[in-house]
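Lab notes, practical 5.
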Amino acid sequence: MRPRVFITRNVPGEDALARLRASCDVTIGTYSSILTAEEILHGAREADALLCLLTDRIDAALLTQCARLRVIASCSVGVDHIDLAAATQRGIPVGHTPGVLTETTADLAFALLLAAARRIGEADRFVRTRQWTLARRWEPDLLLGKDLFGATLGIVGLGAIGQAVARRAQGFGMRVLAWNRTPKCVEGVECVSFNTLLAESDFVSLHVALGAETKQLIDEAALARMQPGAVLVNTARGAVVDQGALVSALRSGKLAAAGLDVFEQEPLETDSPLLQLENVVLAPHIGSASDATRRRMTAASVENLLAGLTGKPLPHCANPTVYAVKNP
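Output from the prediction step:
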């Protein structure tokens, strides 16, 4: 009997999906919006394998009702939407897709850095709302921004994406500082303490995973340590930043600007004060959103599923201790 695979929503990468269909019965959810717990359960209850997205909450309650489930592959790097402890306890390896989206996410982080520094969002609105008139065709103080060349960039989290951002910054002639929870030595990067990074950086870019140690890492106290007029960029996870404290820092002018791809609650609430701030560039969690990268993510997810279904270790396993549980 062929294994049953449930994919919560359609994903790019028909070649990879064709490989999966060659040996498995594949069902893809036809939902046009984020799935509810009931909708995920409807597809996963009789599945041997599950391919999910970062918006799909896979918790212990759901796993207890999916007795056949042998492997989960998340088409994402982060897996904070999955109860890894519950999956491990049930002997289910969980795959993810590290590495394939490194350069694409670094591109977006640097795009937000440039857009926030040079006030591109404000400039776009200035033109679209017809404020750029003949009388105001050029003004010496119009939309003055911040130079990247010669400035200091602080990178919080020196993993693959953080290092990729550092390489881009070096190309712009920036001094690059970094703080990492475990010491790392990267050429052209000065590793410093967290407080030193905040105090000396003109720009701060966040690249840490979300966990107990990093939740609201950038809080009111951290923002107060940053240079007046600094710029903050977040392409990591929204909860790494205290959003209320960030809004206050942007309103007061403590921070000159921010570039955000992630938020505490996604999508942003319609009454979010961030929507009222001119000095914020907002993006809807598109760090990995290039066609080539999304196809690579699907391919990596399929590799994880096929390995798990044949009893092999996953190429990219988020809970490797599961193998000790399965083979005590």
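Observations recorded by the TA: DSSP finds twelve helices and twelve strands in the chain. The mean pLDDT is 96.
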